[in-house]
Each structure stands twice: as C-alpha cells, then as structure tokens.
Amino acid sequence: MTPITGLDLTGFTEREPGVWTDEAGLVLSVHFFPLIPDLPAALHEPQRLGAGLAQLVAGAGGGLIEAVPGSVDGVPAVRQLVKMPLGSRPGQAFLGSWTVPRAGSSTVVKVQAAEGATTGMREAMIMAQVGPAEYFRPHPYGDGQPGGLPYHVGDHEQWDSRFPDHPLTLVRAALHRITPTITFDDRFKALPPFGGPGAPQSLPHLPPPRRGWFRRRKGA
User: Fold this and answer.
1) Residue 95 has what DSSP assignment?
2) Where are the beta strands (DSSP E) in 34-124?
3) Are 39 and 197 spatial neighbours (Cβ–Cβ below 8 Å)?
4) Is 219's pLDDT higher than 60?
5) Is the distance from CB of 33 to CB of 108 less than 8 angstroms?
6) Whole-angstrom Cα distance, residue 56 to residue 216?
7) 42 is a domain residue
8) How far, in Å, CA of 72 to CA of 100, rounded?
9) What is the pLDDT of residues 136-184, one digit of tens each?
C-alpha cells in the first residue's frame, strides 16, 4: 500500500502485494515509509548526499555505483544504483531505486537482480580492454569509503549494450523504462519537501493509503 497510483507493469507478474518478478529474474517492489527519511543530506546537496550514501553502502559491504538527484512524477527524488555481494555464493546483486522523500515520509521504487552461475565476465572483459590502471577509479563521491566493493568503470552505462543480459544492464534498463510511468496520489505530492537531516520537519498527517490507490497502467 503506497501513494503510487500508476506504474507500467508490462512483463511483470505479481508474487505478493507490492512485489513483482519477470522472466529475466528482475524483482520490482514498491514501498511506503511513514517516517522522516533517513537520507544523509538534502536533495539540493548532491555531493554531500552522494558521499553519505556511498559511506552507508560501503559500511554494509556493498558499493554505490551512482546517486543522481532527479524527479519522479514531478516530485524531487534521488536515483541510486548499488551493488552488493551475494554472501552465500560468489557474485553480486544489483539494485536500482528511486527514493522519493517528503518531510515526514518517503516512497521507494526498487528493481533488483543477481548474477547467476557465471560471475565476473563483464568485469574481466572490460578490464582486459581498458587495462587495470584505467579500470579502478577513485569514487566520484569522495575517496576513503570504508570497506565495501571497489568503484570501477565496468559498472558504467556505456558498457551495457555489450552485456545486454547482465543483471546491472537489466536493472538499469528497467528503472529507465518504468520511471516515466510512475504517478503519485496528489496528497503525497502536496506534502512539504524533505529538508535534510536535522532540518525542521513539518509532519502533516498523511491518511493511510486506501485500497485502489495502486493501479496498473493500461496494457500491464
């Protein structure tokens, strides 16, 4: 139950309320949190926001590929791409998300997929082409991220066309495709904006989502 009123679910099958999967192994989910967002900075501070998110992801053992402010249905938001080790076996999972924060709540749309039995082929082929010295780069949101997975050019979008079935390619493409189809309830859009951590937050009462808020786009 979220303030989302429209979302193109073409190709996805519902597995449980708010969670869908497709034949390529993507998992799409939507979430609503009636709490002050835990973002480390306001959206108008992109460098500080990116550095804080990179530290949080690295502290959890993963790596932040990108954090890009933007908007969803006209509401300010931040798009993240994250990679995480699978832990139980070799390989990585890739997560793409939009976090849409308001003063006292947030909505998150997330797409994720994991590597299968074959892992590391994309990274190995790109490193062989560009060379190790050009492959690993300082993190764009600041050096010295504690732990986590390294930042490298193999995760850049320019390589996606060469690896169309890679989970990162699939996650990024799905997020690009569905973003323009997302619409929100007007009450959510009218909430005061998120002012950043520590900023005075107006906490207006948001009525609980009613059944029927979420609906499929035509043709989904």
Assistant:
1) E
2) 63-72, 75-85, 92-101, 106-114
3) yes
4) no
5) yes
6) 33
7) yes
8) 7
9) 999 998 865 667 899 999 999 999 999 999 999 999 999 999 999 999 9
For residue 16, the domain's CATH number is 3.40.1000
Closest by alpha carbon to 173, among 163, 182, 183?
163
Sole residue written with tokens 């973002």: 39
What average pLDDT does range 92-108 have in this prediction? Answer: 97
Kindly tell me the burial class for residue 42, based on how many C-beta atoms sit within 10 Å of its own C-beta (0-12, 13-18, 19 or more): buried
CA distance 57 to 65: 10
Structural domain that includes position 25: 4-189
For the chain, give the mean pLDDT: 90
Q: What is the pLDDT of residue 147?
A: 76
Nearest to 121 by CA among 91, 152, 156: 91
Considering the entire predicted model, what is its pTM?
0.89
Cβ pair 127, 113 in contact under 8 A? no
Q: Please give the pLDDT value at position 215.
A: 45
> Could you give the number of structural domains in the chain?
1
Burial of 220 (0-12, 13-18, 19+ CB in 10 A): middle
User: How far is CA 64 from its chain centroid?
Assistant: 10
Mean pLDDT of 208-218: 45
pLDDT at 198: 74
User: Is residue 69 a contact partner of residue 196, using CB atoms and an 8 Å limit?
Assistant: no
